[in-house]
Amino acid sequence: MFGFIPPALTPILLLVASNIFMTFAWYGHLKHKSSPLLLAILVSWGIAFFEYCLAVPANRYGSATYSTVELKTMQEVITLVVFAGFSVLWLKEPFHWNHLIGFALIALGAFFIFQKWS
Question: Whole-prediction pTM value?
Fold first, then answer.
């Protein structure tokens, strides 16, 4: 299905797209706090459907190239990057130096996950 994209890149692109949907599903409603909670839940659930439609194939295709630990690590790092952009651009929240340090430490942990030292 994604023959024109390198196999190592396919899950990354799908996870980025998936995480954009996921972030809007989980946090997008915070910009509209006056809307009824039930409406926020239903809209979020609808958005999350598309997140699953991308995340499941990302992991299925990705498992041909990456271990499940590597896939999960990728997903977490991508989630943080997408969330950081989302919180600044959509929610207009500041991004502070302590956030950057915390994310850098998580990225350092991801670096070790991808090392082949065994």
Answer: 0.85
